[in-house]
Design brief:
Order of helices and strands of chain B: HEHEHHEHEEHEHHHEHEEEHH
Radius of gyration of chain A: 15 Å
Distance between the termini of chain A: 11 Å
Structural class of chain B: alpha/beta
Strand order of the largest sheet of chain B: 7-6-5-4-3-2-1-8
Structural class of chain A: alpha/beta
CATH architecture of chain A: 3-Layer(aba) Sandwich
Low-confidence stretches of chain A: none
CATH superfamily of chain B: Aldolase class I
Mean pLDDT of chain A: 95
Low-confidence stretches of chain B: 1-11
Helix content of chain A: 25-40%
CATH topology of chain B: TIM Barrel
Number of helices of chain A: 5
Number of strands of chain A: 12
Strand content of chain B: 5-15%
Shape of chain A: globular
Strand order of the largest sheet of chain A: 2-1-3-4-12-11-10
Distance between the termini of chain B: 34 Å
Oligomer: heterodimer
């Protein structure tokens, strides 16, 4: 992304920690903007589905063909979901089952570690260069299954916590709540790469 | 020394997790519910969280008596019924109620002026808990004192149970004005400002540097319509609590959502409309649409008509 303008990355701003993501994206070299309506997806170089309540986000996506618009956008453009966002991206959602975009070949279990008292901050090895990665888990889901085309970049207790499948990235933790910007930088680079093509 | 450092480390991690959950609720609506059925309606309407309680503020106000923490059986049933976070209220200073709520697995504890205070001098030491706390405030000093005690979220107090938004507006304006004023003070002036605010200097300095609270700032107390929610969001609230506004018809009578389909539909329409208005708070076209869809609104009670000693917001200090 040498001389080109910064990639413009949308953050789904129905509800959740979209402001924290916008800040993280700006720090990672992107131009963030908030998306509350399907029309606002036009012209974006990528999209972040933030943390929050996936049930609430789904209610909004079920209106005004937002769900379909999001699916169409994410089939050709980079998308990154954290926590609730990873639930929305999954092929299948468990406990309980709910509708999802089916863009990531993975099965995700909601609230898999328990309630808020079971939330935690873990540090673990990652295949991202630069050493161990801090991971903030808040009422976190768990990726219990991934397809062959999905690469796991970090784990917790043997389950993938950060995954990539082509232009789709998902984290069950909240990189936007840590100071380390490696995860967001990786996503911004994917978006910048698409833009350069 | 090393032990002290260790403790501090835990406190920092704990606070990050607590504020982290508050971050996830931003832009959403937290609804007061008195039954499993109401909790289901709230979740179905798109609430980000529900507050489990036995009587909503409008009923407490009308019926009187001592208002306490909700029954554990009710809280457990609601936790079982929904997948969104569940909050519950403890009386001001009643740390034993808070311990019970933490034990039940409640995700956020509201140390609330809506219940009858249990301590006239001390709020709960919220650092002592793993579960995050939200507390009400009418001004910046009060907000910072609660944060010093460990609150991970502040909400305006407003005047609960009235359906009159006037005091929520007053408290939000007061807090944001006092924060703006701090940002133009010199370093030397901040010490005197801390004294006047009766708040710790470190927190006052933090607000002076950033212009905002170090924890999310939500709004509560009298929000009854989609327009009220949009108003509070435009005034700077980061999310909305709705107490009596969804499930009440007259002052002390809830809509019968269990047996009366028409009344159930009314509650659903109010809940959905407030959720949409909170997300699209800056879009008058959508606000007009959802305001039109609402059938009926809580009757309400003008806050100006309430006698000083009957105000809930003056509880806590």
């Amino acid at each position: 992304m040498s001389k080109a303008a910064k990639p413009c990355i949308g953050v789904l701003a129905i509800q959740g920690d979209y402001a924290a993501h916008a800040q993280a994206l700006a720090e990672a070299g992107a131009e963030p903007c908030e998306v509350r309506q399907p029309e606002e997806l036009a012209g974006l170089d990528g999209l972040v589905l933030p943390g929050g309540e996936s049930t609430t986000m789904l209610k909004f996506l079920e209106k005004r063909h937002f769900f379909k618009a999001l699916q169409d956008f994410c089939r050709t453009m980079p998308v990154f979901g954290t926590c609730a966002g990873s639930i929305l991206l999954a092929r299948e959602v468990r406990s309980p089952a709910q509708r999802s975009l089916g863009l990531l070949d993975a099965v995700v279990e909601r609230n898999a570690y328990g309630r808020q008292i079971d939330s935690s901050i873990e540090t673990a090895e990652t295949s991202l260069p630069g050493g161990p990665l801090e991971m903030v888990f808040i009422r976190a889901p768990r990726i219990v299954e991934i397809g062959p085309g999905v690469e796991a970049l970090a784990y917790r207790e043997g389950y993938p916590t950060l995954v990539r499948q082509g232009m789709v990235m998902a984290a069950t933790f909240h990189p936007e709540l840590s100071a380390d910007r490696r995860v967001h930088r990786m996503f911004v680079e994917i978006a910048a790469g698409i833009r350069a093509v | 020394m090393s032990k002290e450092n260790g403790t501090k480390q835990i406190a920092t991690t704990g606070l990050r997790l607590k504020v982290g959950l508050a971050e996830m609720l931003k832009g959403g609506v937290i609804m007061d519910v008195m039954s499993v059925e109401q909790a289901r309606i709230a979740e179905e309407a798109g609430a980000v969280s529900v507050m489990a309680l036995e009587r909503v503020p409008a009923m407490i106000r009308a019926e009187g008596g001592v208002a306490r923490m909700a029954k554990p059986s009710l809280i457990k049933a609601i936790i079982q019924a929904v997948t969104i976070p569940v909050m519950a209220k403890a009386r001001i200073g009643h740390f034993a109620e808070a311990q019970i709520l933490q034990e039940l697995g409640v995700d956020f504890i509201d140390e609330s002026e809506v219940l009858t205070p249990a301590d006239e001098a001390h709020h709960i030491d919220k650092h002592a808990f793993t579960t995050p706390f939200v507390c009400g405030a009418r001004n910046l000093g009060e907000a910072l004192r609660r944060i010093a005690e460990g609150a991970a979220m502040i909400r305006t107090k407003g005047e609960a149970g009235t359906g009159d938004v006037v005091h929520a507006v007053q408290h939000m304006r007061q807090i944001t004005r006092e924060m703006r004023q701090l940002t133009v003070l010199t370093e030397q002036e901040l010490y005197a400002a801390a004294k006047e605010l009766q708040a710790p200097y470190e927190l006052v300095r933090m607000v002076a540097q950033t212009g905002k609270l170090p924890v999310p700032n939500f709004s509560a107390g009298g929000i009854a319509t989609p327009a009220d929610a949009a108003l509070m969001m435009q005034l700077g609230a980061e999310a909305i609590f709705v107490g009596s506004g969804i499930f009440m018809k007259e002052r002390a009578t809830p809509l019968d959502v269990e047996n009366n389909p028409k009344e159930r539909e009314e509650a659903v329409s109010r809940a959905k409309a407030i959720v949409i208005a909170t997300t699209h708070y800056n879009d008058p076209k959508i606000l007009a649409e959802v305001s039109e869809q609402v059938t009926g609104t809580m009757k309400g009670l003008a806050a100006a008509a309430i006698e000083e000693k009957e105000l809930l917001q003056t509880r806590g200090w």
